[in-house]
Design goal:
The complex is a heterodimer. Chain A is mainly α. Chain A has two domains: 40 residues; 209 residues, MetI-like fold (Orthogonal Bundle), CATH 1.10.3720.10. In chain A, 79% of the residues lie in helices and 2% in strands. Chain A has a two-stranded antiparallel sheet. The longest helix of chain A has 42 residues. By secondary structure, chain B is mainly alpha-helical. Chain B folds into two domains: 60 residues, no CATH class; 226 residues, MetI-like (MetI-like fold, Orthogonal Bundle). The longest helix of chain B is centred in the C-terminal third of the chain and has 35 residues. The chains are: A mainly alpha, B mainly alpha.
């Protein structure tokens, strides 16, 4: 009886019958999608939410799922610690210096890679990749040997060198892709109406490549700001930046202090990355990793 | 014209010169140091090093054979390989699924997902490792949650090798999904519709059309993560077990704690060789693709 009814219905109304055969799989894929996003939510956000809870916890004993007591006392403990102020200051000195130095060294190269043909161009472009190809810790240890020899170990410039190294790839590749994306015809049009090469660069090329350059500069700033491994190896004990301080926080301080410190340390990255989020998703980052 | 070529060369030479001085030179020096050469810039390090193998005539493999004789080093080496392969494989599968989902869905759920996967990029790796180890540790949140849900024997992943894998997947997620999603965006809808018209299911479309058209982004994600994990310090140091250690952590302890820089640099050389093999794959894949697109 039921099957008869179905066939009669589908005979008259083909569209609902199609919808009926599709809908279970649609429902399935929708619930699969929900499960996927939920799993992603827990995997990505779970640890961070728990960390934030810890920062405001007075008492939190296993197996309770939320703290038994909330408290703000750890915030004042961390903020009034003199180590804290010093490492914040250091981090905010190193990161801008590294970013500006990196831009001075790499941006001309990025422009050259995208606009000039010269001997060894491809080899040099791939050569820059070598810094990323070498595993970080191995590289730092190799460099530390040279820094000892040149008396740069545990100095301001030693730390600058270590941090600068991490920025070269993003600072060259991403802007190079951004310069390449500027149509040559636009530059030629500017030249045709009488603009000189510098004026063309300043008023046509640079504004169009700006988002890519900004993404690269912020990535460089954060690479320096978040760098812990190399700075720890080269800068300790005199140049303890925020992420390096975090190592001793994790091992020597109570959970709450480390949690408070984590939140403070994440703030600059969070703010900067929110500012450039649309450019990153827009593909400027991804474009930088295809060799051209 | 000749003038322009040289201007380009000089502009590009600036970062190259920096890298040669601070990456190329140290790498070559430490390479020779591990074979027993203690002269030149190595002299300062070798003066304070302990347990050093010195060669006065030619090269010696002494450091390497010493290391391989140690069971603890062999365990470290195997653990590093295992964690690298597991991390990259797991990351590729997870980020491929997320990228596929983002390519074919819209609506608020997809928008939530497209913000979620980016979050780890905002968090410095020291903090990420710390947050993750607190979350997955025994006595941590997942442990407590499992107990509430009636499973008191749920394994805790803090300070285990699998914990390091979780950490690598978490920190690698934004870059991986970004690369794969931007690759998937470049596949024209018409290709996918054509395949569906002839009856291909989602699974077939994914494996037979989208996967082969995205080999380059997949290789980029695989190689960059492989190299990143091989030389990582922060995640394995904060999330991993004390033994076996990953090589990034082990070489740091040899360098700083045991004061055996030669052994540390020998480990670095071995990791370099592994990474160079992976890096070559990346370069070849790029060049091959370049040639292909050039001929079309």
């Amino acid at each position: 009886m039921m099957s008869n009814q179905n066939s009669v219905q589908s005979g008259f109304l083909p569209i609902p019958s199609i919808r009926r055969t599709v809908s279970p799989s649609q429902a399935l894929s929708r619930s699969l999608a929900t499960a996927l996003v939920l799993a992603l939510l827990i995997f990505v956000l779970g640890p961070l939410v728990v960390l934030v809870l810890w920062a405001f916890a007075g008492e939190w004993f296993y197996p309770s799922l939320i703290p038994q007591k909330f408290s703000l006392s750890w915030w004042s403990t961390v903020l009034s610690d003199s180590h804290f102020g010093h490492s914040v200051l250091l981090s905010f000195i190193f990161a801008p210096v590294v970013t500006i130095l990196s831009a001075c060294i790499c941006l001309p190269a990025a422009y050259a890679f995208s606009r000039y043909q010269f001997p060894g161009r491809r080899a040099m472009f791939i050569g820059i990749f070598a810094t990323n190809a070498f595993p970080k810790m191995g590289l730092y240890i190799a460099i530390a040997g040279i820094l000892y020899a040149t008396h740069l170990m545990d100095t301001f410039w030693g730390v600058i060198v270590i941090q600068l190294m991490n920025t070269v790839v993003v600072m060259t590749w991403i802007p190079a892709a951004a310069f390449s994306a500027v149509p040559k015809s636009l530059e030629e049009a500017a030249r045709d109406v009488g603009a000189g090469p510098f004026r063309t660069f300043w008023h046509v090329t640079l504004p169009m490549a700006r988002p890519g350059i900004i993404v690269a500069m912020i990535q460089a700033f954060l690479a320096s700001f978040d760098e812990a491994q190399g700075t720890f190896l080269v800068g300790a004990p005199n140049y303890i930046t925020m992420p390096v301080q975090m190592y001793s926080m994790v091992t020597n301080y109570p959970q709450q202090a480390a949690a408070v410190y984590s939140i403070l340390l994440s703030m600059p990255s969070l703010i900067l990355l929110l500012l450039i989020r649309k450019y990153i998703v827009g593909g400027y980052l991804a474009a930088g990793f295809r060799m051209k | 014209m000749v003038n322009r070529r040289w201007i380009g060369f000089l502009m590009a030479a600036l970062p190259i010169a920096f890298l040669l001085a601070f990456v190329g030179l140290p790498t070559v020096e430490s390479f020779f140091y591990t074979f027993g050469y203690t002269g030149g810039p190595n002299a300062v390090v070798s003066e304070m090093a302990q347990n050093q193998v010195v060669s006065h005539h030619g090269a010696t493999l002494g450091v390497y054979t010493e290391l391989w004789k140690m069971a603890s080093f062999r365990a470290d080496f195997i653990a590093t390989i295992w964690v690298t392969i597991a991390s990259v494989a797991l990351l590729l599968v997870i980020s491929w699924v997320i990228a596929l989902y983002l390519r074919f869905s819209d609506g608020w759920l997809a928008r939530v997902a497209s913000s979620l996967y980016l979050i780890p990029m905002f968090i410095p790796s020291v903090i990420a490792s710390y947050a993750l180890v607190t979350f997955w540790n025994s006595g941590g949140f997942v442990d407590a949650l499992a107990k509430h849900l009636g499973d008191p024997n749920f394994p805790s992943f803090g300070y285990t090798l699998f914990g390091v894998v979780i950490g690598n997947v978490w920190t690698g997620l934004p870059f991986a999904v970004l690369m794969l999603a931007s690759g998937l965006r470049n596949v024209p809808d018409s290709y996918i519709e054509a395949a569906r018209d002839v009856g291909a299911r989602a699974w077939t479309v994914s494996l037979r059309i989208l996967l082969p058209m995205n080999t380059l982004p997949i290789i980029i994600v695989a190689t960059f993560n492989c190299i990143g994990v091989l030389g990582a310090y922060t995640v394995p140091y904060l999330m991993g077990p004390t033994a076996p250690q990953l090589l990034g952590v082990a070489m740091t302890s040899y360098f700083s704690a045991y004061n055996e820089p030669q052994q540390a640099e020998a480990m670095a050389v071995m990791v370099f060789i592994l990474a160079a093999a992976v890096g070559t794959w990346y370069v070849i894949a790029n060049l091959r693709l370049d040639r292909k697109s050039g001929s079309v």
